[in-house]
Design a protein that fits this description.
Radius of gyration: 18 Å
CATH class: Mainly Alpha
Strand content: under 5%
Distance between the termini: 50 Å
Largest sheet: none
Oligomer: single chain
CATH topology: Hypothetical protein af1432
Shape: globular
Order of helices and strands: HHHHHHHHHH
Helix content: 55-70%
Structural class: mainly alpha
Bound molecules: adenosine-5'-diphosphate, nickel (II) ion
Length: 223
């Protein structure tokens, strides 16, 4: 099977697989990340667009936070599907490595593996965590988890280990400080950096409006 028919087939499988996914990690998230990845990838020299597409499509098929923390399911399903499509082993290894290494929480540990395609997919995914969509996804996830939106008595934890980050049940506003506002300075590619700047400023303006409407600005809001 050619890699382009593999992309079509995997896209169909992912769409079905994510039918019941939480609103921020569903097929529309994958479509937006895919769009971002194409925009960013077109500006990067020498990256393999098919690897970028396949890794993007497969990156959230089994997010550990919806599978009792199991980090092995996603890479395992991705490998099975790619093997069924007879994708060459070297390509499978690359795609599975991208999926294993792209997440924010894994970047809280010392991580070594990278590739130009990982940088593109990671930026594309990070862009969907910030800006207008990022705000919507954060509150959707907070609602899904029954979290408070905001509590001025509970300050964000700015330096968390991966384990602390996974256990956190803090109000959703804290997630902006614990992850979303950090992403701008973690972007890899020139296009990603530019796109992130606009979305970052939009989130900061949003937070300021939020506090204005509450009639109080928490002491820890400094951006
Ligand atoms: P990754 O899957 O890249 O390791 P996360 O688990 O931090 O990253 O989250 C992915 C997305 O899920 C976030 O960008 C956000 O939209 C949502 N999310 C995760 N944790 C929270 C949280 N505590 N509050 C609100 N949204 C969250
Ligand atoms: Ni994602």
């Amino acid at each position: 099977m050619s890699l382009s028919s593999t992309i079509d087939l995997i896209a169909d499988k992912v769409k079905v697989h994510l039918i019941k996914a939480e609103g921020g990690h569903d097929w529309s998230h994958i479509q937006r990340v895919w769009y971002n990845a194409k925009v960013i990838g077109a500006q990067e020299d020498g990256v393999d667009e098919e690897i970028i597409s396949l890794a993007t499509l497969l990156h959230d098929i089994a997010d550990p936070k919806f599978h009792n923390g199991d980090e092995t399911i996603g890479p395992r399903i991705a490998r099975e599907w790619l093997e069924e499509c007879k994708v060459p082993e070297v390509t499978i290894v690359h795609i599975v490595n991208i999926i294993k290494h792209m997440s924010f929480k894994n970047s809280l540990d010392a991580e070594v593996w990278t590739s130009p395609e990982l940088k593109v997919v990671q930026d594309a995914d990070r862009l969907d965590a910030i800006g207008a969509i990022g705000i919507a996804r954060a509150f959707n996830y907070g609602g899904h988890k029954d979290r408070a939106m905001f509590d001025p008595e509970i300050a964000p934890a700015l330096q968390m280990t991966k384990e602390e980050y996974k256990k956190s049940a803090a109000p959703t506003i804290n997630h902006f400080y614990e992850k979303l506002l950090k992403l701008k300075s973690m972007m890899n590619t020139k296009t990603g950096i530019k796109m992130a700047a606009e979305r970052h400023d939009y989130m900061v303006a949003y937070l300021e409006q939020f506090y204005k409407e509450c009639g109080l600005t928490p002491s820890w809001h400094q951006v």
